[in-house]
Structure formats: C-alpha cells, structure tokens
C-alpha cells in the first residue's frame, strides 16, 4: 500500500484517530552482514525488507511533535518553517500531507512520495469524517473516533486513492 | 429535500413532510416535558447548537467555501450557500447596522413551519429556535461568537420571518495554526 498512515488531530492538538498500514517495499539493493539490523518480513511470498518499520518510528515522533522536528532533510512546501502550519513535508522515503480545516481539525496523511492525488484524498477524508463521525450522535466532538463506519469507509477511500494515484512499482 | 449530487452514487430523498412532522413532534414533546415556553426555547437552542457544531464540518467539506474575511462575507455565505444547501431556501440579507456587526436574515418561507399554527397558550414559544442554535454553533466552530434571535415570526402574525444576527467577538482561544 502506498499510503502509510492517516492521522486526525483535534483543535487542542490531541490525536483522535490513527491508522497505520506500513508497506514493505524493496527500494534498493544492499548487502548486509550478519546479524541484520533491519526487520525482514515475508510478504506475498517475497522476502521484503520492512523499511517502513524503521521509518515508522521516526515518522511517529515527527507527527506527534508537529512543531518542526528534523526528519532527514525536511523543508516545507512554501520554503518557510511553520509559518502557517505544515502543509507538506517531503523526505526521500515518504511525503507527509496535512490539511487543516477552518474549524481547526487536522488531517495528516503519510504516503509514498510518488503517490498522487493526496489532496483530493484529504478532502475525501474530511467528507468521511463529517459523515460517519459527526453524524453519529453518539460521537462527542474532539474525542477519539471509535466509529466502525468511519474505519470502513476510510479504508475504502484509501484503496481507491491508491489504485487511482500511484504509477510506481506496486507492492 | 435531497442530498448534494456529489455525495455518492445514491441520492437520498426524504419527504419534507416527514421533516416537518419530525420537527413538530420534537417541539410538542419538549412542550410536554418542560411546560414552560422559555425552557423549551432554551432546549431548542441547545439542540440547534449541537447540530450546528457538526453541520459546519459537513458544510465546509461539501461546499468548498474559503475563509470569510469579514462579517458581510459570512452573511452572504450563510444566506446564499448554507441555507440553500440545507433548507432549500435563500433568505435575503437586510438591515445592516452602521458598524457592520449586525444584520437580518429575512425568510419568505420557513420549511420548519409548514402547516403549523401556534396556539394561544404558547405565545412566547419560538418554534424555530433550533435554527438560531444551529447558526450559533456553526459560527462558533469557525471562531465567531454570534447571537442569533428571531425578531419577526410568521407564526406570530408577522409578514415574514426575520432572524437578527449580531457579531459579538472573535473567539481567540484554540485558534487553528496560522491564524494568530
């Protein structure tokens, strides 16, 4: 899957939803000496290095900080650091996109750098949030989102976006 | 009433009669529960507020309007986009105060009050007070504290329904990033 994670952050800065689906990807050929310091996973009858796993730890730190913690050569899309909030963070292993609504909710998506159509995916996630989280009368605003329908529809939207967007080597 | 066309493959239509009946059942039940018109008005406002804080996200997600730069823009968006989207009516905006912080929404017809007549023993009931709560809740989520109240009501014999909107202040706590 080319979309690694989706996070939803409320107005106060608390994480109210998290979806991680790291893709094992073989991007480069390297020789290792035993013992390995990378995690190997058997996936689809191929042995792949779960690079995502390692970056995942760093990714996790960066997102939780959201105040510009350094992640191997970062720069914001508009060249200035944190002037109007992070909109896009690019590294060589992933791209982080952030969409902030006028009400202060932030949708953060981590994806493969080659994945296209993330902007429309962010809008779609906003619609899914306004439908399945907000229209559920038992969901309280600003609280963690524990709505099945939200999960299901979000995963569906991610699948659609991946099929439509990426033209790089599939997993 | 129907949902927007970009909602998905199915367009859900619900009869507006069912909506009017549902709202009516709500108000009459509140009247039975609270017995006092003022309390009912307060409850309707609270319920409207809860709807408003959720509806705003749906509105922003579907309508793609950008940030409003002043209260006049806000008024335009409310009347021409929001009311149209949710109630199918376009109220007119009039009676701007000299300072530009108050205006009136004139509703020629109000879908909530189709077929409704107010009896004499409920003369101080603001039947459509839910709408005021919705406006208040929705605008609060985009950092505007406003007051909305009915100043004319066709149910009480006036020619039109008029909602007076007053801008109180900008809400400064919990601002989204980049808005200081």
Automatic annotation (TrEMBL), chain A:
One GO term describing the cellular component: Golgi apparatus
Alphabetical list of Gene3D superfamilies matching this protein: 3.30.450.70
Signal peptide range in chain numbering: none
Annotated GO biological process: endoplasmic reticulum to Golgi vesicle-mediated transport
Pfam families reported for this sequence: Sybindin (PF04099)
Main location: endoplasmic reticulum
Keyword annotations of the record: Endoplasmic reticulum, ER-Golgi transport, Golgi apparatus, Transport
Subcellular location: Endoplasmic reticulum; Golgi apparatus, cis-Golgi network; Golgi apparatus
Role played: Core component of the TRAPP complexes which has a function of guanine nucleotide exchange factor activity for Rab1 GTPase. Plays a role in vesicular transport from endoplasmic reticulum to Golgi and autophagy. May play a role in dendrite postsynaptic membrane trafficking.
PANTHER family hit by this protein: TRAFFICKING PROTEIN PARTICLE COMPLEX SUBUNIT, TRAFFICKING PROTEIN PARTICLE COMPLEX SUBUNIT 4
Family: Belongs to the TRAPP small subunits family. TRAPPC4 subfamily.
Subunit structure: Part of the multisubunit transport protein particle (TRAPP) complex. Component of the multisubunit TRAPP (transport protein particle) complex, which includes at least TRAPPC2, TRAPPC2L, TRAPPC3, TRAPPC3L, TRAPPC4, TRAPPC5, TRAPPC8, TRAPPC9, TRAPPC10, TRAPPC11 and TRAPPC12. Interacts with SDC2.
Name of the protein described by the UniProt record: Trafficking protein particle complex subunit
Organism taxonomic ancestry: Eukaryota, Metazoa, Chordata, Craniata, Vertebrata
Automatic annotation (TrEMBL), chain B:
Record's keyword terms, sorted: Endoplasmic reticulum, ER-Golgi transport, Golgi apparatus, Lipoprotein, Palmitate, Transport
Tree of life domain: Eukaryota
GO CC entries: endoplasmic reticulum; Golgi apparatus; TRAPP complex
Matches recorded under Gene3D superfamilies: Trafficking protein particle complex subunit 3
GO biological process: Golgi vesicle transport
Keyword Transcription regulation set for record: no
Localization of this protein: Endoplasmic reticulum; Golgi apparatus, cis-Golgi network
Keyword NADP attached: no
PANTHER family referenced in this protein's UniProt entry, alphabetically: TRAFFICKING PROTEIN PARTICLE COMPLEX SUBUNIT 3
Subunit structure: Homodimer. Component of the multisubunit transport protein particle (TRAPP) complex, which includes at least TRAPPC2, TRAPPC2L, TRAPPC3, TRAPPC3L, TRAPPC4, TRAPPC5, TRAPPC8, TRAPPC9, TRAPPC10, TRAPPC11 and TRAPPC12. Heterodimer with TRAPPC6A. The heterodimer TRAPPC3-TRAPPC6A interacts with TRAPPC2L. Heterodimer with TRAPPC6b. The heterodimer TRAPPC6B-TRAPPC3 interacts with TRAPPC1 likely providing a core for TRAPP complex formation.
UniProt function note: May play a role in vesicular transport from endoplasmic reticulum to Golgi.
Family under the similarity heading: Belongs to the TRAPP small subunits family. BET3 subfamily.
Listed name of the protein: Trafficking protein particle complex subunit
Organism: Pipistrellus kuhlii (Kuhl's pipistrelle)
